[in-house]
Amino acid sequence: MLKNIFFILLLFPAALCAQQAECIYTLSGQVIDDHDRSPLSFATIMVKEANKSAIGDSLGFYIIKGLCKGEYSVVCNHIGCDPMEMKVKIKDNTIQNFYPEHHEEELQNVEVKSFREEKTTAGSDKMNAKALEENAGNSFSESVATITGVNLLQTGPTIAKPVIHGLHSNRILIIQNGIRQEDQQWGAEHAPELDPFAASKITVIKGAGVVRYGSDAIGGIILSEPSPLPHEAGIAGSLSSVGMTNGLGGTLSSQLQGGMKKWKGFGWRAQGTMKRAGDAHAPDYHLSNTGMREFGTTASLGLKRKKTDLELYYSFFYNELAILRASHTGNLTDLENAINSAEPWYIEDFTFEIQNPRQVAAHHLVKAKTVFHLKNAWKFETQYGFQFNSRQEFDIRRGGRSSIPAIDLQLQTHTLDVVAEKTGSKNFHTIFGAAGFFQDNYNVPGTGIRPLIPDYKTGSAGIFFIERYVRAKWEAELGARYDFRLLNTQKIASDNSLYEKQLAYHNFSGTAGAVARFLEYFSLRTNAGVSFRPPSVNELFSEGLHHGAAAIEEGDENLITEKGIKLVTSIEYTRSAVAEFKLLGYYNQIFNYIYLQPQDELRLTIRGAFPVFNYVQTDARLTGFDFSAKMKTVSNLFLQSKISFISAYDVAQDDYLFGIPSNRFENNISYERERWGKLADVDFSFGVLNVLEQKRVPAGDFAPPPSAYFLLQVAAGFKIPMAKNHKLGLQVAVENLLDKSYRDYMNRFRYYADDAGRNFILRLHYSF
After folding, report:
1. 360-389 per-residue burial string, b: 16 or more CB within 10 A, e: under 16
2. Fewer beta carbons below 10 Å: N end or C end of the chain?
């Protein structure tokens, strides 16, 4: 008996070693979002039968060691994704990737301590679908301006464009669904022609030199992105309606989307918006001729396979905007009186009718995109875009010619982007690509007026490279870009001769930055960007009355390229259940800064009397900071604060810069509950906006800056869960609650009238 026991003890280690020798295999791979093929960080992978598991790293890579040969049930779990289980046969070291479907909307009330790799180290802020829903009915620019550090450059109540850290127009790139928006954005009164209802997320990148999108983003970038197309059978949709008392405005928007059971991976979406408003009103009078009409629609088709993604996209946007009648005067005395008067010289009863002066603009965009997923985690992407933009501006003209536009422009733009991207490396993320565009701008004959800007054709080609190094606690980024641009212009000179000029520009731009995460909830990021912007056609060749701006503008063809260096540093604390804050500081040095300078002249023309502005060049320095914070106090009560401070200086002239936003403070108190009886997402809020007087102004403006002002606003909203996946949301809000009279320094019509008064808003949103 003792011999048998001794013999078994001798054999047991050998048997154990033999078993261990067979269990030497590994299972590894990457967890990747099925929608956009981005890595999903810190997913959990579990092998059921072996009772072994692993947690993926920041790029989604995982490895499980010590597996024997056989077939296993492997489960992948990630926050915001449905669990994914599959059978995996282990015969050798095995690689198995997982492609769960990431649902971003399910993360709104979840505190996530891990992170996903950033798109850029430059400071950025986002508006998600919930924030866009709360601002439904506002223009694209008005929605974006709810982000700290973003202001509005207004031309009356109907026209607004975003200003990021004091810069706007051609210094801001707007990317609509991956395509650079080209819609005569050079004009200070040319609002972006896109529908905010078409986006599910808007991101504002506040750094410069983000080389993937272009070398001329001296001010920043705005990304407008729709949600990924569905790829499962079924139909979903939404219907939104908005009513406003100021201007008696109304908006109706709907969306349908779905997939097909027979065509796995196929998705589609159709969306449309209609908007109408009459004359807005200030507290004491109507702002005559400030109505508007607007229509927008988008359509998308997509097919997603394991190795190939295809997408077709079309959007159309049309608007007709009235221009404040009081901004146009007949002679110099009337103009001086209008500027010095407390009320507009022209006031009529409310009407929906849109009269001259007015603008009519239409914008078409077609996009075709293919993505090939290659071996070794390489992704190859090609994207073609075609845009057609038409703009007509109608002035008050004599002799029955008011139906003939004073400005009639047509702009065609072709863009092509080719990008190769590798995310499969352990820590490195590589992107390189090429981008080009060709543009043809044409003045339609028959206006009877010499064009404000000449006909022109321009082409550009660029190449870029970005390398990112990503670790769990920090990441770094380095990017470089080279662009060449050629501009050909033609115009009829004052002596009726043909004047032609060709200009060429080539520039290098770059960016470098890093992000560090520490103490669990803190992160520190810094980014430096070098950018270059050639002067635009209006800055070089404008010559005459820009009726929408109610000003005479004169260009200078000797202007040279702007060169900007911007440094952005921010510290963030994010603990969504308790508090979150962000402090961002920036320094932007712009050499050869081009701006529209008011001249000491009011000029009388056959079309009326108007102030004169010239495009001039100087060296500028813009510095400031943005601060935003939200903190939970007691029993679902939250305090929120936003501060935006900017100082802009003309270094060459030793003076302040013209046209820079005032410093502002916004404080809000809200009561928020996820559930209140049968209601969901209950929110009551009260806010105060304080805008200081802009005292940092150069001499020579036509009127002194307006006084400081404060506005009160209240809002209340909730959602009613209905049948499965059906919800009805309702919000009531009041802007300018006290109906306060004020004028904003960044409203170009502050010379003639007050800003809009009290506005009651009702928003309804039904989703299924």
Report:
1. bbbbebebebebebeeebebebebebebbb
2. N
The token duo for 565 is 């260096």
CB 107 within 8 Å of CB 80: yes
* Of residues 340 and 289, more confidently modeled: 289
Decide if 282 contacts 756 (C-beta within 8 A). yes
Residue 448 structure tokens: 């009877």
Cα 333 to Cα 118: distance, rounded to the nearest angstrom:
57
* Average pLDDT rounded to a whole number, residues 683-690: 96
SS3 167: strand
Which string of b and e fits 52-69 if b means at least 16 CB within 10 Å? bebebbbbbbbebeebee
Which residue do the tokens 């820009």 mark? Answer: 546
Residue 425: pLDDT above 70? no
Structure tokens at 688: 């105060």
Q: Please say whether the beta carbons of 527 and 217 come within 8 A.
A: no
**Which tokens hold the place of 116?**
């996903």
Q: Is the pLDDT of residue 120 over 80?
A: no
Beta bridge partners of 70: 90
Determine how many CB atoms are found less than 10 A away from the CB of residue 581. 15
CB 535 within 8 A of CB 594: yes
Taking a C-beta distance cutoff of 8 angstroms, is the pair 666, 642 a contact? yes
Find the helix or strand (DSSP H, E) in which 85 lies.
strand 84-90
Amino acid at residue number 685: S
Cα–Cα distances in Å, from 134 out to 177, 272, 631, 684?
21, 18, 20, 12
Instruction: Say how many CA atoms lie within 13 Å of 266 toward its Cβ.
Output: 7
Nearest to 376 by CA among 432, 308, 423: 423
pLDDT score of 19 more than 60: no
